Amino acid sequence: MSQLPEQSAGPSVPTSADVARLAGVSRATVSYVLNDNTTVRISDATRRRVREAAFDLGYVPHAAARSLRAGHSRMVLLPAAQQLPGPLHQRFFTDLQTDLRRLDYTVVQYGSVGLDADEAVRAWAELRPVAVVAPGGVHLTPHRTGVLTRSGAKAVITLGPQPVEGAHALVLDQREVGASAARHLLSRGRRSIGVLMPQDPGLAVFAGPRLAGVLRAVETSGAAARAEPLPLAYEEEPAARLAARWRTLGLDAVIAYDDEYAMLLMRALQDAGVGIPEETAVVGAGDLMLGRLLRPRLTSVRMELAAAQPPAELIDRLIRHPGGPRERHDLLRARTVVRESG
Amino acid sequence: MSQLPEQSAGPSVPTSADVARLAGVSRATVSYVLNDNTTVRISDATRRRVREAAFDLGYVPHAAARSLRAGHSRMVLLPAAQQLPGPLHQRFFTDLQTDLRRLDYTVVQYGSVGLDADEAVRAWAELRPVAVVAPGGVHLTPHRTGVLTRSGAKAVITLGPQPVEGAHALVLDQREVGASAARHLLSRGRRSIGVLMPQDPGLAVFAGPRLAGVLRAVETSGAAARAEPLPLAYEEEPAARLAARWRTLGLDAVIAYDDEYAMLLMRALQDAGVGIPEETAVVGAGDLMLGRLLRPRLTSVRMELAAAQPPAELIDRLIRHPGGPRERHDLLRARTVVRESG
Q1: Is the ipTM of this complex over 0.95?
Q2: What dihedral do alpha carbons A198, A109, B87, B262 form, nearest 10°?
Q3: B11–A150: do the CB atoms touch at under 8 Å?
Q4: Do A60 and B125 touch (CB under 8 A)?
Q5: pLDDT band for position A138 (50/70/90)?
Q6: Which of B98, B101, B109, B128 to substitute to test the interface with A, most A CBs within 10 Å?
Q7: Of chain A residues 310-329, which have a CB less than 8 A from chain B?
Q8: What is the pLDDT of residues A101-113, one digit of tens each?
Q9: Per-residue pLDDT tens for A330-340?
Q10: Surface of B (244-273) touching A: CB under 8 A
Q11: Which residue from A295, A91, A4 is spatially nearest to B328, judged by alpha carbons?
């Protein structure tokens, strides 16, 4: 550690009275100007003077005090991004944040890393958000949803693979990802499909439904086909072991959890001399750039999030009409982009 | 959209008085029990009764009201994870959150997507955090740091490539990443080094210092060597164009921005018949699994975050002693992991 020049010890917190004094106006005028209240006639010169005084003093209103006065907050709590990884979710959250801000909400992200579900929900409730979007991984029971609504949340919305009783649901139905890949492989005449299952416990909530989607697609196809789960850790050594016994498995296709798992397995299969796609077709998911850089180029399930109404407007509507029926919106669209690997 | 069974309209918010009534104790007792105040003698049976009543009613204390009463909050504001991408930062933030919670802080993440720096700082100040860890990308001027400290923040800490005047600094000095790669290449006799510069504006804050590190390493090496920046968008087409004119550039080595850019360029160079590493050595950064899956295996700069004191303890100390000198802590360690590509 090195020391930089002195930081001044905590100065006194400026108040709206300080702003009023500096600008030479009443506290009520300060409040009208800084809250953008346009029903009161205040000259532009005065508004400018108040804003400059607030800026010079570094005065900002206190969100908590304001929400206590108003009896409700404008805070929307979103799950921290790492709980729903991937570029797809990141873009979704970026857009959602921008749109909610445009609707004048304060967007706060809250991680539940290291907390159990009850602790996480209590921590959320303590912040008195007007709405909570909770990841599918935290199991919102009806009781926990009740804790949030009784603490003042007008809308509790889950975002994840399955809806949860008592809450609105933005559903990313992962079964469609597996089903799309399986339908493609079946249409190409593949009949024995392995499904890579990642061993990261955080991914089980996605991987389980994807496998279910594959199994259902195989069942309903009418073809004499089968699918089986293949556990695989994201490491070179287990991938090499799986590749070494690949021909004993009798599979002619494999659906990887995502493009990175597909790359891991393809490398191991190629190193073991297994022909792709001649002997085994490989399908990834996520349609990342890296799949296009592989040889053969990777066939992959592309996912998109689409909604009839932009999610921010939906959340705003649910907040403003809290008594309505619970809603379910399916956001995930999946289609297989066919390249060379299968 | 489909409709699920009815959600009950906003029930009344339970108060500590409701909990006191149900548990048959005073409001003071409720407050002592739920705030874990152990200086007051209350029987275990009573504590249990209060906790059960609070659970049954779904009562949670109001963080804002509590911080207003106490005159300060326990809220530490962290930047939303997407502003510092990559597994390295994610692990750092996960550990930091867990450790801060253990020290009884409320950790809230705040995205500044779509906000300018002044708006972001005001939004942070409105939440009255006791500490703010701000990403390097948002330029905290001394004025903006002042807005935060005057709103009650005891510690303002930047996390990024450079320190900022007026704030404590956790510095991730990216120059060391470039310098490590360049020193390795120079030691292998490479003398003309291209440095891939990503065109994503969000990465400029990392890419610029990395290039500076390369240039300094070349200058101080004493070798008759040179380095030059090569702009490259993360797309196949521009990579192919760059590869097509590669031999006219007279380079014998290239430092990619990260392993993914290295993969993009390696594929394009190999498709153009450029030998790796014979004609051109390639070094990535990040030491991701995918680099080990490439052929030749990718040489890459591994980054680690290390601190003499765990960052959560450091932040806690800065909060408890707000008048001290500003501190700078360098967290980033970089070393080149040599494989086959250069």
Answers
A1: no
A2: 100
A3: yes
A4: yes
A5: low
A6: B109
A7: 322-329
A8: 888 888 888 766 6
A9: 999 999 999 99
A10: 260, 263-264, 267
A11: A4
Q: Which tokens is B170 given?
A: 């956790």
**Contact flag B110-A110 (C-beta cutoff 8 Å):** no
Cβ-Cβ contacts under 8 Å, B3 against chain A: 325-328
Query: CA A97 → CA A171, A298, A319, B112, B134, distances in Å?
Result: 18, 33, 16, 9, 18
Using 50, 70 and 90 to split pLDDT, how confident is the model at B112?
Answer: low
How much of chain B exceeds pLDDT 90, in percent? Answer: 51
Q: How far is CA B37 from the centre of its chain?
A: 35
B99: which DSSP letter?
A: H
Q: Do A11 and B67 touch (CB under 8 A)?
A: no
At B54, the pLDDT band (50, 70, 90 cuts) reads confident
B191 torsion bin: left (phi>0), alpha (psi -120 to 50), beta (else)? alpha
Tokens 């008085």 -> residue: B17
User: Which segments of chain A are extended strands (E)?
Assistant: 2-6, 75-79, 106-110, 131-135, 155-160, 168-171, 192-198, 226-232, 253-255, 281-285, 299-305, 325-330, 332-337
Nearest C-alpha neighbor of B200 from the set B228, B230, B234: B234
Mean residue pLDDT of chain A comes to: 87
Q: How many helices (H) and strands (E) does chain A have?
A: 14, 13
Residues in A closer than 8 angstroms to B93, CB to CB, are: 82, 111
Nearest-Cα distance to chain B for A148, in Å, is 8
Cβ contact (<8 Å) for B5 and A106?
no
Residue A323 has pLDDT above 50, yes or no: yes
List all residues of chain A from 134 to 153 with a beta carbon under 8 Å from chain B: 143, 146-147, 149-152
Q: Which residues of B touch A73 (CB under 8 A)?
A: 64
* B98 part of contact set with chain A, CB < 8 Å: yes
Min Cα distance A335 → chain B (Å) is 21
pLDDT in tens, A157-215: 988 888 888 899 999 899 999 999 999 999 999 999 999 999 988 788 889 999 999 99
Q: What is residue B38's predicted lDDT score, i.e. its pLDDT?
A: 67
Query: Phi and psi of B299, rounded to 5°?
Result: -75, 135
Residue pair B101/B125 in contact by the 8 Å Cβ criterion? no
Q: Backbone phi, then psi, for B146, in 5-degree steps?
A: -65, -40
Q: Using an 8 Å Cβ cutoff, are A51 and A103 in contact?
A: no
Region for residue B64 given its phi and psi (left: phi exceeds 0; alpha: psi -120 to 50; beta: otherwise): alpha
Output the pLDDT for position B52. Answer: 85
Q: Which residues 168-187 of chain A have a CB within 8 Å of chain B?
A: 168-169
Q: How close is the nearest chain A Cα to the Cα of B12, in Å?
A: 6
Residue A335: the pLDDT is 97
Mean of the per-residue pLDDT values of chain B? 87
Q: Is B108 in Cβ contact with A109 (below 8 Å)?
A: yes
Residue of B nearest to A171 (CA): B1
Question: Among B75, B195, B208, which Cα is nearest to B136's?
Answer: B208
- B258-268 pLDDT, tens per residue? 999 999 999 99
Show which of residues 70-89 on chain B sit within 8 Å of chain A, judged by CB atoms. Answer: 73, 80-82
Q: Which domains, from first to last, does chain B contain?
A: 16-61 (1.10.260), 72-171 (3.40.50.2300), 175-303 (3.40.50.2300)
Q: Which of B167, B165, B193 is nearest to B181 (CA)?
A: B193
